[in-house]
Amino acid sequence: MRYVDGYVLPVPKARIKEYAKIAKVAAKVWKDHGALDYYECVGDDLKPKWGVPFPKVVKLKPSDTLVFAFIVYKSRADRDKINAKVMSDPRLACMDPKKMPVDPKRMLVGGFKVLVQG
To answer: Which CATH number fits domain 3-113: 3.30.40.10, 3.90.76.10, 3.30.70.100, 3.40.30.10?
Structure first.
């Protein structure tokens, strides 16, 4: 069964193009090291009629939008091996966390075992 890392990240609307460029590099790096799939999705319908909306949880500012991202792996063990390679990949070494268009203190992050795959 598959394993998924999931992320919800507030990104300033003025920096979404910059974020997309970084995400394209990251997608290539993760896939090159064995991730099965990689998605970065920008918020479109963030005012649902039920449930707790993501914007409320991350304290979304009017100048922000949300990115929902997830990476698919064969297993958690495979994820751990891939992430170790990704973190030492020189293509990501030049990305300074202090200059990233994301506030890591407001990110939601987690690893998930796939319960149902359809």
So the answer is: 3.30.70.100
